[in-house]
Predict the structure.
Amino acid sequence: MIELTINGARKQLHQSATVADLIIELDIAGKRLAIERNGDIVPRSAYPATRLHADDKLEIVVAVGGG
Amino acid sequence: MDELIIAGKTYRSRLLVGTGKYRDFEQTRLAVEASGAEIVTVAIRRTNLGQDAGQPNLLDSLPPAKYTYLPNTAGCYTADDAVRTLRLARELLDGHDLVKLEVLGDPKSLYPNVIETIKAAEILIREGFKVMVYTSDDPIVARQFAAMGCVAVMPLASLIGSGMGILNPWNLQIIINELQVPVIVDAGVGTASDAAIAMELGCAGVLMNTAIAGAEHPVMMAGAMQKAVQAGREAFLAGRMPKKIYTASPSSPVAGVIGSR
């Protein structure tokens, strides 16, 4: 297992998990979202190929109401 | 045809609206429709993990075919956070590059930190973003944003969400007179007359959220704001009569009045 930070909270994932695996595990696949990993955008097309590492910092965002 | 042009794109409506603080997405949709706005701001926030994918999404209530989204950086206090937020927004919205930049300096007043805002604007413009920038009503700062290449400069009329109206029309007027890019009043409008005053001064548009969402009847207020912005714009274009301080001038003929005189 590896441990990483997603939206400020610690989470455990199995070794060799990709971003695509993560969004399935989080049950947010198909949602309109964007992901940043360690300060860089992960393009949607790169989800299956982007492997996650221990201590990665991820931000997963959506659009909400705001002024 | 009197149109608003921002970054080469033409809009019929000069009212831009936010989508925050509504009761639900249905009320958001109805208010935005009643406002006639074509540009709507959205915020970018961490998704609730554990929330199922079937939850309603704001973007479903406001179809992209009908509206131009304007992702904002509300809540950001550093240039770095603002830039990261808008990179995420661009990814989220499939390469959409028109953005509202705001970098706050203080949680109580929500007053903009113009130094951080300038830093962020430089990076964003270099990366190809079309930046509509929220700023103070300092004419020199406004001029600098325009010179940098911001596609619209958006000074506050009063504090965000305060509803205090146009507190410094004199500064706004200087900014409007000096800048070649659209000047849009962003923040502070409380009611319809405030929006009309902004437009009468010659603003290219008005951006508001709380004035509509915080009204007792938001959908009705949205309609009022649409009319106020139109009325103010037409009054500006019509060219108001000069003010004559302490000098009355009768509208009816002076001669031919019956009676003793």
Observations:
- The beta strands of chain B are 4-6, 9-11, 15-17, 39-46, 68-71, 98-101, 130-135, 152-155, 184-186, 205-208.
- Chain B has a mean pLDDT of 95.
- The two ends of chain B are 51 Å apart (CA to CA).
